Amino acid sequence: MAWIVENRLKAYTPTRAEPYLTDTMRKTMEDTYLLRYPRKQAALLPLFHMVMHEYGYIPAGAIDEAAAFLGITQAQVQDAVSFYEEFRLQPSGQYAVQVCRSISCELAGHEAVLGKVRELLGTDPEETTEDGKITVFAVECLGACEQAPCALINGKLRGNLRPESFAQELQQLPPLPQHGDHSAGNGAAHAAKIPGATASKVEPEVHGH
Amino acid sequence: MAFPGPILLKRIPAEPGGRHLHRYDDYVATGGYESLKKALAMPPADIVKLVVDSGLRGRGGAGFPCGSKWTFLPKDIHPRYLAVNFDESEPGTFKDRYLIDYDPHILLEGIAIAAYANSITTSYIYIRGEYHREAQILEEALAEAYSHGIFGQKHAGTEFTHNCYVHRGAGAYICGEETGLLESLEGKRGWPRIKPPFPAIAGAFAKPTIINNVETLACVVPIVEHGAAWFKAMGTPSSSGPKLFGISGHVNAPGVYEEELGIKMSTLIEKYGGGVKGKFKAAIPGGISMGILATNQYDAELDFDIGKKYGVLGLGTAGVIVMNDQTSLPRILRNIVRFFSHESCGQCTPCREGTSWMHKILNRIVAGRGKPHDLDMLLELSQTMGAMPGTTICGLADGANWAVKTFLQKFPDDFKAVVKSPLVAGVSVPMAVTVSGAAAAPAGV
Ligand SMILES: Cc1cc2nc3c(=O)[nH]c(=O)nc-3n(C[C@H](O)[C@H](O)[C@H](O)COP(=O)(O)O)c2cc1C
Ligand code: SF4
Ligand code: FES
To answer: Least buried of B180, B208, B315, B423, by fewest C-beta within 10 Å?
Structure first.
């Protein structure tokens, strides 16, 4: 787990005039998530899922705003947010590629997958390609071991990976609109939809082999 | 009784081409929500009794009797909650995902019945953050179920109000531990709680809370439909009913298959998993916390008694991981302890430091720099940290312990071969095996 030991009093918090918690987020919170729990704090994870979806990472300013919004201290928010691996405190590439490194994927050769990615993209896990397009992560079991080796590309599962073709596929991923760029339909950029906020249909894709 | 064929997976054909997501209409057209109808005509206490009588044991890993868990709720404290454990992060485990990918309403029906039986007014489905697609499937299934009156005010035509929500995690294995889950549900870091109080007394938001696995709740649906005796007729006396088994690793047809509890692992692998790719060497019965089955334990019966009989921790999640004779067990053990070291939540020193040292030691063993006493040190560590020796809050450390001690005890030669110190090349260094019991668990005892 992430261990963040940081003196937030001294930490530089980049700010901007526009709030990080957008009106849409606040409205979704008021209309949906806050109603689900007897305590406001419980809506912290849904709130930060929205922040991740919007910006691709958790800006420090969002932590301060969330504290005010949820009626808890900044320390409480920092304490919770820094614990979860999917809440990234630093910006990453437009595509987060999470390659599984756990047991069944090791048995199926995940190292060859990571090796090919390194060869073609020049990135090791936790690194971003020079053009800022892709950040590779080596993560624990994705719950899709029957499709080992496997990975998530922006939340979408890709199974039975072959090192060569997977690395090539990554090279060919199209550039995405910037995070937070509403004009360009940012919502479509991320496979993960905001739960509860849409009535869209899940893709009728079939898992498996 | 022989296993009558798929029960939980009855809507999911074995042929990949025939599988599709069952939405509300498909579900109802295939007999869905009939059990709920039947349940709502029964007094809630009778449903609890039915589940007790069925012998249903938790499918999330610990095998705790589901019905008795339900009876622990204090009589007059409200509100009370149901937290559905869909964190499914134990390596080798993917059964709950598979079920929800095609048949989400079986879970929702199980939740509705459990809520009615236990006077629960709010349920939360805690789903791991990486299951993006499944979260979307559940959101859509819930919206359908709400619009048909399964959830919401006046639950399915009664005076009873019950809401059900999806709560997404964000990448932390420890949130599958039931009290870590509750902390995460409350918007905090997922640090397991010291027990007691147990969740049934003071769980989510300090109120009485039941925590059940996805598959456990799905089992309630056929139990209500066919009765306790029917359920008990499958499996063994102490492990009743059908079970979802995952098979991954070195097999020809990895996947999720349903059979009755007590099926031999060899049968599961050969009849369903397409047989071993290569020659069988070892298998992990149910997620990496359980320890390893030796080469001569290929025929082990997969039920809740497997721990006692075969020197492993238990059945766990029944996510079987198969390894052939080309597998390097030191490397696999390193992978396992790396997982635990990475996922340790860090609040108990023995677990945080112990798993980290296990990882460092195995790193040097795999790199060819191991010393024979490293093996003794690993064994010693595995006996001194963990909830069972009483030094940690939750069971995560014990998962690491069981992996380490069973790998070393059942496959000592694999490890001795890689730690021969250069100074004593050619001399086999004896390893002190000090853990009682399973050192050489005979097959089939
Ligand atoms: C470290 C750890 C991780 C766990 N992860 C899960 C999990 O992902 N899913 C699950 O259902 N149970 C998990 N469990 C077991 C739960 O604590 C709990 O026993 C279970 O959810 C109860 O449901 P059941 O009685 O229906 O099985 C985990 C336990 C531990 C100690
Ligand atoms: S045993 Fe490990 S994972 Fe469990 S509470 Fe303690 S430190 Fe956390
Ligand atoms: S081990 Fe890679 S998905 Fe489970």
So the answer is: B423
Verify that B55 and B203 share a domain, yes or no. Answer: yes
The 10s digit of each residue's pLDDT in B27-45 is: 999 999 999 999 999 999 9
- All residues of chain B having their beta carbon less than 8 Å from the beta carbon of residue A69 are none
- What pLDDT digit, counting tens, does each position of A102-124 carry? 999 999 999 999 999 999 999 99
Measure B219 CA to ligand 2 centroid, in angstroms: 30
Does ligand 3 come within 6 angstroms of the Cβ of A178?
no
Q: Where are the alpha helices (DSSP H) in B41-80?
A: 44-54, 66-71
CATH topology of domain A95-193: Glutaredoxin (3.40.30)
Q: Let me know whether B316 and B395 are in one domain.
A: no
CATH class of the domain at A23-83:
mainly alpha
Residue ranges per structural domain of chain A:
23-83, 95-193
Contact (Cβ atoms closer than 8 angstroms) between residue B125 and residue B165: yes
Predicted pLDDT at A17? 86
- The residue out of B215, B233, B251 marking a domain boundary is B233
Cα-to-chain-centroid distance, residue A190: 9
B243 shares a domain with B116? no
Q: What interface predicted TM-score (ipTM) does this complex get?
A: 0.92
Instruction: Kindly state whether residue B56 falls inside one of the protein's structural domains.
Output: yes
Q: For A143, which of B16, B94, B190 is closest by C-beta distance?
A: B94
Q: The domain that contains B255 carries what CATH number? A: 3.10.20.600
pTM of the predicted model as reported, rounded to 2 decimal places: 0.92
For atom 30 of ligand 1, the residue with the nearest CA is B177
Query: pLDDT for A69-110, tens place per residue?
Result: 999 999 999 999 999 999 999 999 999 999 999 999 999 999
Name B172's Cβ contacts closer than 8 Å, sequence gap at least 6. A1, A83, A84, A85, B89, B180, B184, B190, B343, B345
